[in-house]
Predict the 3D structure of the following.
Amino acid sequence: MLLGASPSAIATSNNLKWSPDVQFKLPAYNTIITFDDWIYMDSFEWDDSNATQVTFNNITMDGDTLSTWSVSVENANLTVLHLFKFANKLDFRIVAPNETTSITKVSTAGKGEAVDIFANGTRQNETSTWAYALGIVTLNMTHLSATSLEVCYNVEIFLHPPAISPTVVIGVGVIVAGGVILAYVYRRKKKQRVVRTP
């Protein structure tokens, strides 16, 4: 079922369950937003009858309940894969024709600042492919195929931590071992002093 923006540009569902078959259309861009699983929400609204954005109110999919969540996508269709199921992370897929540049905007209430974005598992450069300002994440992606995106909020690293240098691991091990040895020697000397006391 395809839902387009109505003249009133708002719909209320009283927290009913919505099927993954429902598609939310943005008429201004002729693009579609879908969810990979059933969702609950109180209401949703478009920003205009010729909508460029849809906002979902009190929405839950497979993770946290969000008081508001807004999304806009231009030159691509977007499917939400996980809505904050894993920590503070939003997962979605955008599909566009090859060599097309899509523009996606996401605003999430209560999640703070976006700090990392991964496209098909690769960390993206904030200055070249994405930006965060005034609560909105904006992504500009040039497509060769479907792109799976992870938007991470508040915490710097989620599923893709940087490699830890073996030197760092060895250094930490040496420090810990040294501490244990010093503590052992200190306790032995203390016991010896106690034994020698008449």
Summary: The chain has a mean pLDDT of 81. The helical segments are 166-196. The chain has two domains: 2-153, 163-198. Residues 2-153 form one domain.
